Amino acid sequence: MTQTIQYRRIHIIFPVALASLLVLGAVRVALDSLKNNELHFLWQFNNVSGNRMRPRILPIVVSEDEIIPDGCNVFEGKWVWDNSSYPLYREESCPYLVKQVTCLKNGRPDSFYQNWRWQPNECKLPRFDALKLLEILRNKRLMFVGDSIQRGMFESMVCLVHSIRFQEFNASIEYYWAPFLVESISDHATNHTVLKRMVKLDSVAKHSKEWEGADILVFESYVWWMHKPQINATFGSPDNVREYNVTTAYKLAMETWANWIETRINPLKQKVFFATMSPTHLW
Ligand SMILES: *[C@@H]1O[C@H](CO)[C@@H](O)[C@H](O)[C@H]1NC(C)=O
Ligand SMILES: *[C@@H]1O[C@H](CO)[C@@H](O)[C@H](O)[C@H]1NC(C)=O
Ligand SMILES: *[C@@H]1O[C@H](CO)[C@@H](O)[C@H](O)[C@H]1NC(C)=O
Ligand SMILES: *[C@@H]1O[C@H](CO)[C@@H](O)[C@H](O)[C@H]1NC(C)=O
Ligand SMILES: *[C@@H]1O[C@H](CO)[C@@H](O)[C@H](O)[C@H]1NC(C)=O
Ligand SMILES: *[C@@H]1O[C@H](CO)[C@@H](O)[C@H](O)[C@H]1NC(C)=O
């Protein structure tokens, strides 16, 4: 952690006695509905900042019928309302959510919004499977980088898996605050200026050194750019602050970011995703 960057990494230990189960192709964690398939039990110990929580037993149901068909374009589809299999976790049962996202606790009267499921046009997605995900992430790091949208994705993923670093899996799920991806004066994860913005369009090294070696990187940056049509920024000389059209500034920043991706990412070993056009979420 430096003064400007808060590198958020939470460690939770998750000892698992499931060696035989792990070789199976498809394993499903059924938290709510149990089927009469093979049942296995998973002992879970959470350890957040040294505060050990009570161990819990999660039932595991094995099923092999839920695999995404090859060639299915999962990015084209629609949201469908599904109250039989969603939500995948309950707000009150996940201790990792920050106040900003605990809508029910903050007084939202309905819970309708929790039941949207993504439905690709070409295939059915298998139900989210925490153990399968951890098997994929064995000895790997998955990192979300960006603003509060990404923080939400990170926290949601952690709630789905309910643990971050697993002893058996050695899997790591991380979050890194960088609202513009490139460096800016708003880079402290919790104490940052919101209205006053200044972006260093050609500088990413301070952040990117923390991204090095992550196996799966999910980037996102949008809302922070859209505050005004212009944004104060530097390019080249750090002393030459001037107003840029946001589209120009965003393009230059993306080029800086993409240049890092091109030179430092090995596409055979690492995966990079980029999400854009996120909604505002201030209310
Ligand atoms: C939990 O965390 C504390 C402090 O980080 C550590 O001393 C302890 O060994 C951990 N417990 C387990 C079960 O990993
Ligand atoms: C799902 O919604 C339907 C219609 O709104 C309702 O009849 C049904 O009881 C709901 N099921 C569950 C499990 O909440
Ligand atoms: C655990 O995972 C990290 C990557 O997150 C890797 O560098 C390390 O070698 C792994 N440890 C073992 C014992 O495989
Ligand atoms: C937040 O940052 C400002 C400017 O760097 C500093 O003056 C202030 O003490 C910080 N506040 C906290 C709570 O750390
Ligand atoms: C740029 O910074 C100057 C000086 O702080 C300020 O007056 C101006 O409003 C800023 N421009 C934008 C687009 O925020
Ligand atoms: C900024 O955008 C305005 C309005 O679209 C345009 O007239 C102007 O030429 C742009 N300036 C630069 C430096 O691109």
Automatic annotation (TrEMBL):
<keyword id="KW-0812">Transmembrane</keyword>
<dbReference type="Pfam" id="PF14416">
    <property type="entry name" value="PMR5N"/>
</dbReference>
<keyword id="KW-1133">Transmembrane helix</keyword>
<dbReference type="GO" id="GO:0016413">
    <property type="term" value="F:O-acetyltransferase activity"/>
</dbReference>
<keyword id="KW-0472">Membrane</keyword>
<dbReference type="GO" id="GO:0016020">
    <property type="term" value="C:membrane"/>
</dbReference>
<dbReference type="GO" id="GO:0005794">
    <property type="term" value="C:Golgi apparatus"/>
</dbReference>
<dbReference type="Pfam" id="PF13839">
    <property type="entry name" value="PC-Esterase"/>
</dbReference>
<feature type="domain" description="Trichome birefringence-like N-terminal">
    <location>
        <begin position="71"/>
        <end position="124"/>
    </location>
</feature>
<dbReference type="InterPro" id="IPR025846">
    <property type="entry name" value="TBL_N"/>
</dbReference>
<dbReference type="InterPro" id="IPR026057">
    <property type="entry name" value="TBL_C"/>
</dbReference>
<dbReference type="InterPro" id="IPR029962">
    <property type="entry name" value="TBL"/>
</dbReference>
<feature type="domain" description="Trichome birefringence-like C-terminal">
    <location>
        <begin position="125"/>
        <end position="282"/>
    </location>
</feature>
<feature type="transmembrane region" description="Helical">
    <location>
        <begin position="12"/>
        <end position="31"/>
    </location>
</feature>
<keyword id="KW-0735">Signal-anchor</keyword>
<comment type="similarity">
    <text>Belongs to the PC-esterase family. TBL subfamily.</text>
</comment>
<protein>
    <submittedName>
        <fullName>OLC1v1023193C1</fullName>
    </submittedName>
</protein>
